[in-house]
Write a structure and sequence with these properties.
By secondary structure, the protein is of the alpha+beta class. The chain starts with 20 loop residues before the first strand and ends with a helix. Strand 1 and strand 2 form a beta hairpin. It has helices spanning 60-68, 110-119, 125-138, 154-169, and strands at residues 21-28, 37-44, 75-80, 83-84. The longest helix has 16 residues, at 154-169. Bound molecules: adenosine-5'-triphosphate (ATP) and magnesium ion. Adenosine-5'-triphosphate is lined by residues 1-2, 30, 36, 54, 56-62, 100, 150-156.
Length: 173
């Protein structure tokens, strides 16, 4: 989790006994220093409808990715019907997931994605850098300018796409 933002964390919800899905003290760090999810304790009953609500970058998708098996928890255990799933690959978990996607260029940095519409219009490098910085400032992503899209949350990717769209269509950008 980036500096200044709180990592997702939840309270135990175990009053009704063991859940169909359980998170026990689950934590996730991508870089070994900051945490996208901290001390997640959650019990979800079979048939229960649960919504995760939180600010962009607070760890919602990371939580779902750990449940589906696309990311491994740094600490803690996830169980499905009482069985730990830590060692199960995604295709053995029987979980479906709809992904967030904003058609960013995956091999380009955030800054290069945002500046792309300007570079194809032959704007000078100095101008592009200044305009990209301004656009990233607007969507509060300056600190992520060197990252690739896959290293961002879904909402952060959405904001990169927004900044890129601004650079495509607005003279100020
Ligand atoms: N692959 C990755 N490598 C490094 N950091 C990552 C990676 N994926 C996500 N992060 C960081 O982890 C934090 C949590 O991201 P996550 O995708 O779980 O957020 P989210 O709650 O789903 O946000 P949103 O509402 O924007 O989709 C963010 O700060 C994000 O930049
Ligand atoms: Mg997300």
């Amino acid at each position: 989790m980036s500096a200044g933002q709180a990592a997702l964390s939840a309270s135990p919800a175990t009053a009704a006994g063991p859940g169909f899905v359980e998170f026990n003290e689950v934590e996730k760090s991508y870089d070994g220093r900051t945490f996208a999810v901290t001390r997640m304790n959650l019990a979800v009953a079979r048939g229960e409808f649960l919504t995760l609500l939180g600010p962009s970058g607070s760890g919602k998708t990371t939580t779902l990715n750990m449940l589906a098996g696309f990311e491994r928890p740094t600490h803690g255990t996830i169980t499905l019907e009482g069985q730990p799933v830590d060692r199960l690959p995604p295709y053995e978990r029987n979980i479906g997931m709809v992904f967030q996607n904003y058609a960013l260029f995956p091999h380009m940095s955030v800054a290069d994605n945002v500046g792309f519409p300007l570079s194809v219009r032959q704007v000078s490098k100095a101008d592009i850098a200044a305009r990209v910085a301004r656009a990233l400032d607007m969507v509060r992503l300056n600190q992520f300018s060197d990252r690739r899209p896959a290293q961002l949350s879904g909402g952060q990717q959405q904001r990169v796409a927004l900044a890129r769209a601004w650079c495509s269509s607005h003279a100020w950008c």
